[in-house]
Design goal:
Shape: globular
Helix content: 10-25%
CATH architecture: 3-Layer(aba) Sandwich
CATH class: Alpha Beta
Number of domains: 1
Structural class: alpha/beta
Number of helices: 5
Strand order of the largest sheet: 2-1-3-4-12-11-10
Distance between the termini: 10 Å
Radius of gyration: 15 Å
Number of strands: 12
Largest sheet: 7 strands, mixed
Order of helices and strands: EHEEHHEHEEEEEEEEH
Strand content: 25-35%
CATH superfamily: Class I glutamine amidotransferase (GATase) domain
Length: about 190
Amino acid sequence: MPKVGVLALQGDVREHATMLSQAGAEVSLVKRAEHLEDIDGLIIPGGESTTIAYLLTTSGVREALDKKIKDGLNVLGTCAGLIMLSSGIEDGRSDQWSYNAIDVVVKRNGYGRQIASFETDIVVKGIGQVPGVFIRAPRVVSVGSDVEILATYDHGDGEHPVLMRQGHAWGCSFHPELTNDSRVHELFVKSL
C-alpha cells in the first residue's frame, strides 16, 4: 500500500486524506520536513497559495520539499497546489515563488473570485466524466511541450488544461477532494 502525504499546513487536508484512504493509500500528514522522509507521494492541497508558500517557508519544509520534488517525489497539487507547482504565476505577488515542477504558467483566480465558483463535469483521460469543483481556481494560460494534458475545460473562451502531469508532478485546477468521486486520487495513487 503506497504511503501518501498531505501537506497539512493550510487548505483541504481532511478532505484529501479521506479521498486517499478511499483510493487505497496509507495517509500521512506532512507538517515538518522530517515527515517527507518515508512517503511515496504528496498532495499539496487547495487553499491560499501565498499563505501556503509562507507556511512552507516558516515551517522549514520549503527547501526539503524542493529537494524531494527535484529527486522525483510524486506530487499532486490541486488549485493552490497547482500554483505552487507551476513554472510561472502570471498575476502573482512580487515575492511569490513556486517549485517550477510543471511547465505551465497560471493565472490565480483565473475563473473568477469566490462568488464566481462553480461545479461542472470534467472528462478525464483514462477515467471518464468526473465532477469538477472550481473555487477561485487557477487558469492555465500556457503549457510546455513536455506536459501531458489529462483534462480540459472551456469556460467560454476556449479549452484550457485543468488536469495535467509532467513526469512525477501532477496539477489540477479544480478540487477533486470536494466531491464523492475518488477516481482522480485513484489515478494518482496508481501511478506511485
